[in-house]
Structures are given as structure tokens and as C-alpha cells.
Amino acid sequence: MTGEAKKAFIIAVAGKGGTGKTIITSLVLKLLTEQGRGRVLAIDADPATSLPSALGVRIQKTIGDVREEIASPSQVFFSETMPTDMLIEYTLDEILVHTPRFSLLAMGRSEGPGCYCLINDMLRHFIDKLSARFSTVLIDCEAGLEHLSRRTTRDVDTLLVVSDPTKRGIETARAIKILAEKLQINVRQIYLVVNKVTEDEDVQNALPGLIADSGLTLIGVVPEDEQIRAYDLVGKPIIELPDDSKAVIAVKEIFGKLYKIRLCREELI
Ligand SMILES: Nc1ncnc2c1ncn2[C@@H]1O[C@H](COP(=O)(O)OP(=O)(O)OP(=O)(O)O)[C@@H](O)[C@H]1O
Ligand SMILES: [Mg+2]
After folding, report:
1. Domain 9-268: assigned CATH number
2. pTM of the model
3. What are the counts of helices (DSSP H) followed by strands (DSSP E) for the chain?
């Protein structure tokens, strides 16, 4: 390596709505923190802001809230005395939630047409600055393709595209891959994760065809796990799933492959 500052390893989790992005993000975070891979910044980039509860964390403010505060008339005094970028940095530092295991930043909702552009510009700029303070940045993306088309997720080391074993989930996964290539987003590697896979014969029979249709490289399959349902039913943090949960075991395998690939790449650089 040259004298360059070490950059965080950025993992983004995308896919069709409801396929399990937030669950997979939470389990990857669980493993990252348990395996002592350095400090992790988790970013909830979904306006629905469901990652905090999956991680058992309460957030006070989102980036969307900050945007509104900055735009509000009461901030005029500050914006006249403090440069906007300094104001944004100061406020964002205030909304970062720190736990002993990781830090969390939630993007939140914005109001009004086209407002996301400003938030995303802010997020982009400050992710870059913030990430230097972390070993890994893990992003739970919003459903669908908007995120990619607005190019919030760029300079990603690994994009995990989650699908359930359905034709529509896989079609969205394929569309995400095509869009990422078309937009020339700087994604080093894209992998498919098929989640919520059951032992049903028809699912097992259809799986190879679905995987092939995605046009993506499969990194792993995560089974339908009744413990996840039970945790979600009562709002228990997913990050607290036991190590013998079927989904945790499967994500551990995916995680192992990811880091093996990463080490091989680093050796090649
Ligand atoms: N492996 C699994 N086993 C059982 N249930 C699962 C599994 N993965 C996800 N689920 C369930 O599927 C639902 C959707 O999961 P999740 O919220 O992670 O999806 P998402 O892609 O983040 O959704 P959204 O697009 O709304 O953000 C949840 O009810 C969750 O409990
Ligand atoms: Mg989600």
C-alpha cells in the first residue's frame, strides 16, 4: 500500500422491497462486530428507517430531520454565521448514534418533490468524510432502483443484491445489476443473496433457474428462519439472534466468502 489513508470497506445491501435487506444487513453487522473487524458505521438509507429497531437502537434524528432544520427560518442566523458545510457536519456528528459495538446513521424521510437530491448530496459528501473513521461502512439501501439511479450508493466495494426465491425478486436483482453497470457506479463486486429459501420441492427445483436468470454471481442462500419471524413478531432485535439460528449460520458462510475474496484482492493490489 502507498502512503494513502486507509479507506473503509463499503458494503451496500440492495434488492426488491421485503426481500430481507434489513435482516441481511443486521446479520452482517452482527458478524462484523463479533469478529472484531474494527469499528462499523451502519447507514440506514431507507426512508422507512427500520434498521435501528432491527439493531435494537433508538434514533433521535435522521438526515431528513437535519435537512429540514437547516432549511428552516430559525437556522438563518446560524447559516449566516457558519458556513453551511460546517453546519451540516456539526449537526450530522450530533445525530450519529454510537453503541459499544457500532455507530448508526439514519437517512430518514424528506418532504417535497426532489428534496432527496440535497440530502443525498449531503450524505455522499459526509459518508466519504465519516468513513475514514471506520473500518467498514454497511448500507441498508431503500427498495428498488431509486437509490442507484440517484447515485447515493457509489464507490461501493461489495453490493449484495438480496432476492427472495420469486421471479419478481430475481427480476429486480437483475435490473439492479444492469442499472449499476449502466450508471457506471463504482461497485467493485456485485453478488446475489437468495433469502427466505424453504425446503419446499418446488422452490428447490426452481432455484437454479432463478439464480441463472439473475445474471449475478450467487454468494449464498439464506433459509427461511422461523426464529426471525418470532423475533420480528415481538420486535426483538435481529442482531441478538443466537449463533445457531439457520439464517446466522448461512450469513456467516457468506461473510467468510466475502472476506476471503477481499483478502485475495488486497494481496493482488
Ligand atoms: N431468512 C428469513 N427467514 C424468515 N423471515 C425472514 C427472513 N428474511 C426476512 N424475513 C422476513 O421478511 C420480512 C421482510 O424483511 P426485511 O424487512 O428485512 O426486508 P427489506 O427488504 O428490508 O424490506 P423493505 O424493502 O420494506 O425495507 C420481515 O417480516 C422479516 O421478518
Ligand atoms: Mg428494510
Report:
1. 3.40.50.300
2. 0.90
3. 11, 8
